């Protein structure tokens, strides 16, 4: 699909700042070479590999087009292997609907640093701790620690940012000189 068509149908952009992994599973003798794959619908993005580290610091931004905010964002962590298939190191998913809902609010009267919404960990989400949606320098951000599933241990720290895409305005139909 052409890039311009994606933008036309997009409600906005989700910038995922992949910060770090904490206490990830060991897959190569004493360590691992982790990377993350993010997917939403048909989109799939991959982080860089961090060599020999179970507490990797990616500090990397990945951006997804959002056409349907009800789709979950899926996160999978792998250990990069040279001579065999990459080993799974756990997965998680998160809902961007709360962040999208906040983006629809009129936040002009909210001071910088305001916490707009709190999400609590429960059995239906992968949150390892409370997740805050807040305003910072005019940006809508969500801080998130995800507990990895289907693995013995590990967490991933992310920061989400909602980026609204301005809708194009129709040109005036009035072509009179005045």
Question: Which labels suit this protein?
Answer:
4-stranded antiparallel beta sheet, mainly beta, Immunoglobulin-like, 10 strands, disordered C terminus, 178 residues, 43% strand, 6-stranded antiparallel beta sheet
Strand content: 35-45%
**How large is the radius of gyration?**
19 Å
User: Could you give a short account of the major beta sheet?
Assistant: 6 strands, antiparallel
Shape, per Cα inertia axes: globular
Using the 3D structure, state the CATH architecture.
Answer: Sandwich
What is the third-level CATH name, the topology?
Answer: Immunoglobulin-like
* Low-pLDDT sequence parts: 170-176
Measure the end-to-end span.
42 Å
Assembly annotation: single chain
Specify the CATH homologous superfamily: C2 domain
Number of strands: 10
Strand ordering within the main sheet: 4-1-10-9-8-7
Average pLDDT figure: 90
What's the total helix number?
2
Structure class: mainly beta
- CATH class bucket: Mainly Beta
Order of helices and strands: HEEEEEEHEEEE
- The residue fraction in helices comes out at under 10%
Main location: membrane
GO molecular function: GTPase activator activity; lipid binding; metal ion binding
Family: Belongs to the plant CAR protein family.
Subcellular location: Cell membrane; Nucleus
